Amino acid sequence: MRRGGARQEVEARGHLVDSFILARIFGAIMDADGDFEVSEMRVGRRKGDQSYARLLVRGRSRRHLDRILNTVYRAGATPMQQGEAALRAAPRDMVMPDGFYCTTNNRTQVFSGGAWMDVGRMMMDKCIAVSGGAARCVPVRDVKKGDMIVVGEAGVRVAPPEKPREGGGVFEFMASSSSSERPTRQMARRVAADMLRTEAAGGRIVLVGGPAIVHTGAADAVAWMVGKGHVGGLLAGNALAVHDIENATRGTSLGMSARDGTPAPHGHRNHMEAINQVFRAGSIREMVASGQLKKGIMYQCVRRGVPFALAGSIRDDGPLPDVVADVTEAQRRYRDVLDGAGMVLMVSTMLHSIAVGNMIPADVKVVVVDISQPAVTKLMDRGTRQALGIVTDVGAFLPMVAEELRRAGPGARRPGGGAGRRGGRARGGRGGAAFRA
Amino acid sequence: MRRGGARQEVEARGHLVDSFILARIFGAIMDADGDFEVSEMRVGRRKGDQSYARLLVRGRSRRHLDRILNTVYRAGATPMQQGEAALRAAPRDMVMPDGFYCTTNNRTQVFSGGAWMDVGRMMMDKCIAVSGGAARCVPVRDVKKGDMIVVGEAGVRVAPPEKPREGGGVFEFMASSSSSERPTRQMARRVAADMLRTEAAGGRIVLVGGPAIVHTGAADAVAWMVGKGHVGGLLAGNALAVHDIENATRGTSLGMSARDGTPAPHGHRNHMEAINQVFRAGSIREMVASGQLKKGIMYQCVRRGVPFALAGSIRDDGPLPDVVADVTEAQRRYRDVLDGAGMVLMVSTMLHSIAVGNMIPADVKVVVVDISQPAVTKLMDRGTRQALGIVTDVGAFLPMVAEELRRAGPGARRPGGGAGRRGGRARGGRGGAAFRA
Amino acid sequence: MRRGGARQEVEARGHLVDSFILARIFGAIMDADGDFEVSEMRVGRRKGDQSYARLLVRGRSRRHLDRILNTVYRAGATPMQQGEAALRAAPRDMVMPDGFYCTTNNRTQVFSGGAWMDVGRMMMDKCIAVSGGAARCVPVRDVKKGDMIVVGEAGVRVAPPEKPREGGGVFEFMASSSSSERPTRQMARRVAADMLRTEAAGGRIVLVGGPAIVHTGAADAVAWMVGKGHVGGLLAGNALAVHDIENATRGTSLGMSARDGTPAPHGHRNHMEAINQVFRAGSIREMVASGQLKKGIMYQCVRRGVPFALAGSIRDDGPLPDVVADVTEAQRRYRDVLDGAGMVLMVSTMLHSIAVGNMIPADVKVVVVDISQPAVTKLMDRGTRQALGIVTDVGAFLPMVAEELRRAGPGARRPGGGAGRRGGRARGGRGGAAFRA
Amino acid sequence: MRRGGARQEVEARGHLVDSFILARIFGAIMDADGDFEVSEMRVGRRKGDQSYARLLVRGRSRRHLDRILNTVYRAGATPMQQGEAALRAAPRDMVMPDGFYCTTNNRTQVFSGGAWMDVGRMMMDKCIAVSGGAARCVPVRDVKKGDMIVVGEAGVRVAPPEKPREGGGVFEFMASSSSSERPTRQMARRVAADMLRTEAAGGRIVLVGGPAIVHTGAADAVAWMVGKGHVGGLLAGNALAVHDIENATRGTSLGMSARDGTPAPHGHRNHMEAINQVFRAGSIREMVASGQLKKGIMYQCVRRGVPFALAGSIRDDGPLPDVVADVTEAQRRYRDVLDGAGMVLMVSTMLHSIAVGNMIPADVKVVVVDISQPAVTKLMDRGTRQALGIVTDVGAFLPMVAEELRRAGPGARRPGGGAGRRGGRARGGRGGAAFRA
Fold first, then answer.
1. What is the per-residue pLDDT for B235?
2. How does residue C177 score in pLDDT terms, banded at 50, 70 and 90?
3. How far apart are CA C392 and CA A181, in angstroms?
4. Which of A183, B111, B311, C123 could form a disulfide with B155 if both were Cys (CB 3.0 to 4.6 A apart)?
C-alpha cells in the first residue's frame, strides 16, 4: 500500500460473496487505480448468514480518493463514520444545484437530520429532494426552485440488489445460459410460476407491450390474462391500442385477417378506420361504454378497471385521444401505474421497456420477451441489470404462458373461483383454444 | 374469363415493365382472386421509353370487383373514364368522414373540379382535404370540422415510384444483395456520391440520427458534415442532443472518455450534468450564444442555422428544454424540416426513422444505416420501400462517408471554395483526422 | 439506340410479366449499360396464359454484347437461332476446361446433338458434363479427365422459376411482409398445409435441422413428424444427432433436464456420454437394434427407414461414428437424400441450409425457420431465392406445425388410416401432448 | 446446517473474491441444494495478494454430496486430502471407459503417482489419458484401446481463469458494457495494443476468419497484418481462401469489382474459376511458387511461412485441394496451429470460432469481431467465456486495427526494422492507403 495519499475506512454488510458485492467493491477500487487493505472480514458461516467486511481504501490524493470512494459507495460500501447528507436549494424551476447526487436504481437511503431515511419512488438518473423528514427521487423537470436537493456522495447509502435464490422461477432457471437454447415450454412454465408467486405475495404485475403482441396473434392470450387479473397494469404506446382495437372490431391486424391470415378487403386502411372510430366515440372508455368495443386487451383493461397509460411517440398514427401526447406527462402516468409493482413483463417494445427500466427500482423483477436478442441485451446495458431476457416468438410464447397460468392458477385448483374468474373457468375447460376464442 | 360478374377497364402508363408496375398490377388482381384480359399493350421500344397497357378487370360481383380495383389503383392503374373524387365534410374536429381515402406515400393526384391536382405534402396513412382548388394530405389530429375530405377510391390517381437507374449511386450498387457482404469503403463512397449528386441538384439532405452516432465516436464526422453544409436538416430525439452536448462539454459519452475510452471520474453523471447545464442556460441556442457550447453536432446546427427538431419520447432523461415534449407538435416540426428534402439519411434510430418514413413521399431517397439488419428490414416492411439499408458500424462508417465527401466534394476540386467552405478547406488538408479534431 | 456496335436478337416465353422475368431481362441489359429494342411483344390475354417477347439487344462491341448476353441468358432469354453447346474435355481429374459454363440453380437445358436435353440433378456453381446423349451437373471434385464439359454460354437455356400462385400455402401468405409481424399460428397452419399438399402430390419433404430443435424442446414434435411419414429425409450434422440421443437416453439437452428444465446431476457430461455410448454400440442403427435407443428423431428415422445423412464439421464433438467426416463424401450423401425432394424445411442451421441451398434446383419449395432474421436473409442472398423465411422460436413453432398436421392430416379425415399411421391415430386422440410424450 | 448426511472439507486459493471464484463456489453449492460452513477464510490484505478459504460442504447423502462436489471442484475448489486419480483402460479404440472425467477448458492438473501433473493441450469436453508420468487431453476419436483414462472427479484439480487486470487492453475497456455503444476507433486501438502486448510477451496471434473479411473489403488490411508478422497462424475454411484468391487474381469478391464495387463481367463465375485455377496449379503453394498468386492473405501466409489450416465443410464449393476434407483430420491440424497461441482473433465465422473455442484453454485471450451480436453471445454461451465480443463492421474495423498497429508497432519506433518488415516500412509511409494497395 502506498504511503502518503489519502485514506478512508469503509464497511459492507450482506451476502457479500455470493451476491458479488465484495467482488464489485474490490473491482471498483482497482479499476480506479486505488489501493486497499482488508481490516476485518467475517464470512457468514452458513448459507443465509450475512457477511461483514471492513476495508481501508487509499488514493494518491484526496481528489483521487474521492473518485475511488464514489464508485465504492455505489457498489454498496458505506463509510465507517456516516455524516449528514449535504443539501442545497435548487436555484430555479427545473434546475438542479451543482454537484447534485445522481441516483442509481438501487434501493437508497439518505442520512439527514441524524437518521437514515429511505428514498421514495427510486429511479435511475434523477436527483433526491429532502423535505419534511422525507426523501424522494425527483426528475429534473419536476424540480421546483428552492427544493432542497442532496449534493455530493456523503450521507447516501446504496443497497445493491442481492442475487435472488428463491428457486423454481425463471430467474434461477436462466441464470447461466442464453435463452435461445432453452426449452420454450419450460420457460413459459417458469414465467407463469413467477407471476403466480408474485400474485400470491400480493405483488402487482405490470405488462409493458408493443403492437407485435397483436400482429403475431397473441392478443387473445393477453386479453385473457388481463381479464383473469394476471395483469395489474398496462403500459404501452399508441400502436398496441390501435392494433388491438383494429383486431377486436375488424378482425384484422395490419390489414391481415386474424382468422385465416389473408389480406382483408380494404385491410390496409383498417387501422386508420379504427383510429377514426375511437375519435368519433371520444375515447376507448366511451367505445366500451357504448358497446362498440367488446373484446381485446384494451376492452379487458376498461372492464376490469386495470390502470393503463398510453405514451405518445413521434411515429404515432393519430395518435388516439387516450394517448398522452406530452411525454413528460406520460412519464408521470407511467410512474403512477408502476408504483408498487412486484414484477414487470416487457414484451416486444424496446422504447417503452427502456423507459420503464429507468423508472423502477432494481429489486423489481423484470422479464423481457422479444424475438431479437440485441433488444434484450440493450435493456440490461442501460442499467436494468435485473432483467431476464427470453428470446422467443411472442405469438407462440404468450399463449403458452397463458395456458400455464390457467393450468397452474387458482382457478385450476379451486372449483368455485371468484366472480371475476367464473367466465374463465368455463372457457378454461375448452383447452388452449380458450385464448383464441 | 368468367362470364357474368362485374368489369372495369383500366390503364397504366410509365416504365411498366422494368419498374415492376405491371407485375404488381397483375399480382394484385390475382391475389384478390380476380380475372383480367390485356386489351392493349405497347412496350416502349427502347430504354427510357414509356409503356402503355390497358386491361379489362373482372370480379365475381360489383363488391368483389371494387375490392380488386382498390388494390389495382394503388398499384398504379387508373380507370379509363375518370370521375370526380367524392368529397364529404368532416363531422367534427379530429374525425374523418366514413369511407375516407387512406393515403399511400406515393405521389398522388385528385380529380376534382374537372382537373387533376397534386396532393401536397404527401404522407402515408392520412386523409386528403380539398379546398380552394388545392388538395393536401392531412393527419387526423389536424382535421377540422367541415373540412372536405376525399372519400372512396374514385378520382384518385397514384404514381408508384419508378426504379431509379441513374447509375453510380448506392441505390444501384446495392440493388441485389445484402449490404453486410459488400465492401464497406465502396458503400461509403457511393453514399457520399449520392449526397453530392443530391446537393448538386439543389436537394436538401436531412439527417435522422440516434445517440449511437455519439457513443460509437462518429460525432466529429457528423458535426463536420453539418458544418460543411452537407446536412440541411436534423431530426432526432433528446438522447442525440444530450450525448452530443455531454461529449462537446465534458469529453465523455455515456461517461466514457472519448479521448482514451476509459471511464471518466464521475462519468456516470455527466449526461445528467449536461442536461442540467442546458436547463440552466435556458436552451441549446443560449448555450451556444453564451459560449458554453463550442463544438459538436448541435453547435454546428445552431452556428449554420440548420433547422432541427428534437422529438420527446417516453424514455427521455430530462428531456432538454429544446425537446418538443408534445409528440403531435413534434410531428408538425418534423414535417416542416422534411419539406422539400431530396434525400434522407437515417442513422441508428428506428423510432425516428419509422416516424420520418411515414412523413415523406416515396420518391425521396432514403438511406438507412444501422448495425442491426432487422432494423433496416423493419423500416422497409412499414412501407418505406424506397429505403436502402446499409448494415454497418456507424462509428466507422460515418467518418468514412465524411472522408469521401471531403475528397470528392466541391472543395476538393475548386481551390477557392465558397465562404461557407473556407474553414473546411484548411482543415481538409490535415487528412482524415479533420473529423476527429 | 446506338449505331454501330454488335447486336443479337433474343426471345423469352412464359409468365414474363407477373413472374418478373421480363423486368429482370430489361434490368440486366440496363445494368450492363446495354441497349435494346422490343421487336415483338405478345402478352397473355388472360391469367394463366403465357407471354412472348422478342428483343434486339445491342452492345458497344462484340465483347460488350457478349457480356450483356451472358446476363440476359441467365435471366431467362434465349437467342433466336440456337447453336450447339460447345464441349471441351477436362484436362485432368478435378480440373474443368477454361471457359466452363458455370451453372445456376434454375432448370437448365443444353442444345447438343441437334436437340435440347435437360441437365440432371441441377445445382448452383457447378459445370455441365455431356455424354451418351445426357447432360448432368457435376461438382469440380467429381470431374474426371476427358469428361466433355460445356464451355461458353451458347446452347444453354435457363428457365427461371415462375412465381407460384397456387393459393393457400405459406408462400402466398408471406409474399409481401416480414414474418415477424405475422400471426404465428397462421404461419404454422400454412406450413402444414404446404407439407400436406406436397405429400398429396407425391413429393418428399426433406428436413434440414440443427441442434436447437432439441435444445428448444421441439424434438418430440419432430420425432412425431418423422414417425408419421411427414419427413422423408433428414439432413443434419453431428450435433442434432448427439443432442437428440442425449435427450432420448438421458432426458437432458445441453445437460438441462428436459422434464423440468433444471440442471441435471453431472449434466454437463451427458452429451459426451451419449457420444461414447454410440461409439460403444458401433452406430446409431446398432443402438436402435440393441434396444438402447427407443425414442427421438434418430430413432424414428431408423425405425421408419427414413434416409438421413449427417455431415461432419470442424466444431464436432466426437463426431459420432455415423457422421460422414469427409465433407466431399457427405455432399454426395446429401445429394442422394435430396434427389427428388418436393419441399425442404430448413430449421435453425445456417451451415447445412446453405449447403442444401446450393444442391437443389430453384423450383423446390424451401421454408427456412430460424429465430434470427439475418440467417434467413443470408440464405436468400446466397442464391436460394425461392426460400421463404419464418422468423420464430422453433421450440414453439414446430409443435404448432405438428399439431396442425395432426388436425389437418389424412388421419384426421380417414378413420381407417394406413398401417404406418395407425399408431399415430391412437396418440393423436390425446391432443397436443402427443408430441411431448 | 443439516445434521446427518455426508460431508467433505474443501479448500480454495487464489484471487478468490475479485475473480468471483468464491462466489461461484458458494453458488454451485446452493444451486445443487447443498449446505456449507466457512471453516477458515483469509482474505489477501492488499491488491495482488492471494486469498485462502476452507469450507465444510454437506449433502443429504453421499450421492447428493458427490453431485455437489462435482460442481464445486469444477468451480476451483479441491478436497483437503487429495487422493490419486482413478484410471481405467479404454475398452476399444474410440471408446472411453465408463465414468470418464469430462474436461473443461480450464487449466487442469491430475494427481497420479503421488504428484500433480499438468494436463497437456487442454480442451473442452475431452477425456484425460495418463501414461509415462504425463497427462494429456484426448478427443474420443483419438482414444486407443488400452489407453489409461481418468475416471471420476477425484484427483483432478481445475484452475478457473482469473480476471485479467493488466490495464490498457480491450478486455478491461469493454468489461461493463455492450460494444455496440463504444467508440469504434478506441476499440480498434485497444485490440491493436493487446496484439502488440501479446507479441512483446512472445505470444503468437492466431486469426480465425470467414469470407466476410474479403467481401467487406478488409482483405488488404489482413494481408498486411500477415505480411508484417502480426498474425502467426490462420484458421479458416474453404470460402476465405477461395474469395481471397478470387480477389487477388481477378479483382472481384462474389463477382463484384473490388475497385469500384460494380458487378464485373462474368463476375458470378469468378470464384469457380479461382477454384479451378488452384486445382490446375495443384495447390495454393504451387500457385504462389509459379507466380500465379502474388498478393492477398493466402499469398502472405505462404510467403511468410505462416502456418494455416483450412477445414472442409458441407457447404464448400470445390473445396480447394488445400482444404482438409476430413473434419477429424482438420481438427488435428487446427490444434497444431493453435498450440502455444497467446491470443486468438475470431472474425466473422461462427463455425470455425466455436470449433477453436473448444480447442483452446480458457486462459488464451479471445477477441470476437462480428456484425451480429448473437454470434458473439453464442460463443460465450458455448463455454468460451473469456471471449470479448466486438460488434462492428469488419470491413471498416480491421483496416482501423491495421492502421493502429502500423502507428503503434515496432516499425513506427525502430526506423531500421527487420528484413521481413522492410517492404512494409516503405509502404507504411504512405499512410492508411497502405492496406488498400
1. 98
2. very low
3. 13
4. B111
Question: SS3 of A101, please?
Answer: coil
D24's grid cell: 461461484
Q: What is the pTM of this model?
A: 0.89
Q: Nearest CB to B178: which of C20, C181, C378?
A: C378
- Measure A282 CA to nearest chain D CA, in Å: 43
pLDDT at residue D431 is higher than 70: no
User: Over chain D, what is the mean pLDDT?
Assistant: 85
Instruction: Find the helix packing angle between A419-428 and A219-227, rounded to 10°.
Output: 140
Instruction: Name the residue among A352, A359, A350 with its Cα closest to residue A332.
Output: A359
On whether the CB atoms of residues D386 and D161 are closer than 8 A, the answer is yes
Where do the structural domains in chain B lie, given as residue ranges? 1-80, 82-161, 170-407
**What is D1-80's CATH number?**
3.30.70.2690
Which of A171, A86, A167 lies closest to A343 in space, CA to CA?
A171
Give the minimum alpha-carbon distance from D79 to chain A in angstroms, rounded to a whole number: 18
Q: Which residues of C touch D328 (CB under 8 A)?
A: 312, 319, 325
By mean pLDDT, which of A40-49, C390-399, D222-231, D388-397 is the weakest? Answer: A40-49
Q: What pLDDT band is residue A236 in, cutting at 50, 70 and 90?
A: very high
**Sheet strands side by side (includes B51-59):** B35-42, B51-59, B6-14, B78-79
pLDDT band at C3 (very low <50, low <70, confident <90, very high): low
Across A255-259, C121-125, C388-392, D313-317, least confident range: A255-259
A237 in Cβ contact with B313 (< 8 Å) = no
H-type helices in C216-326, by residue range? 219-227, 238-250, 270-281, 284-289, 297-304
Residue B13 falls in which region: left (phi positive, over 0), alpha (psi -120 to 50) or beta: beta
CATH number of this structure's domain D170-407: 3.40.50.10690
Chain C residue at shortest CA distance from A218:
C183
Indicate the length of chain A as a whole number. 437
In tens, the pLDDT along B207-265 reads: 999 999 999 999 999 999 999 999 999 999 999 999 999 999 999 887 777 666 666 76
Query: Across B312-422, where does the E strand assignment appear?
Result: 341-347, 365-370, 387-391
Nearest chain B residue to D211 by CA distance is: B181
- pLDDT grade, residue D433 (50/70/90)? very low
Tell me, what's the pLDDT at C370? Answer: 93
Q: Which residues of D touch B218 (CB under 8 A)?
A: 184
Tell me whether residues C17 and B18 touch, CB distance under 8 A. Answer: no
Q: For A3-17, B321-335, D268-282, which range has the lowest pLDDT when averaged over its residues?
A: A3-17
Which cell is D259 given? 475497385
Q: Which chains touch D (3 or more CB pairs under 8 A)?
A: A, B, C
Residues near A289 by Cβ (< 8 Å), separated by ≥ 6? Answer: none
DSSP 3-state of B224: helix
> Which residue type is seen at D139?
P
Instruction: Let me know: does C273 contact C279? Beta carbons within 8 Å.
Output: no
Confidence (pLDDT) at B123 = 92
C23, C36, C373 ranked by CB distance to B373: nearest: C373
pLDDT digits (tens, 9 = 90+) for C17-45: 767 788 778 878 877 888 888 888 787 76
Q: Which CATH architecture has domain D82-161?
A: Beta Barrel (2.40)
- Strands C308-311 and C233-237, sheet pairing: parallel
Distances (CA, A) of C351 to D14, D145, D271, D313: 42, 34, 19, 8
Residue D400 has pLDDT above 70, yes or no: yes
SS3 C142: helix
Q: Read out DSSP for B105-171?
A: SSEEEEEETTEEEEEES--SS-EEEEETTEEEEE-GGG--TT-EEEESSTTEEEEPPPPP--SSSHH
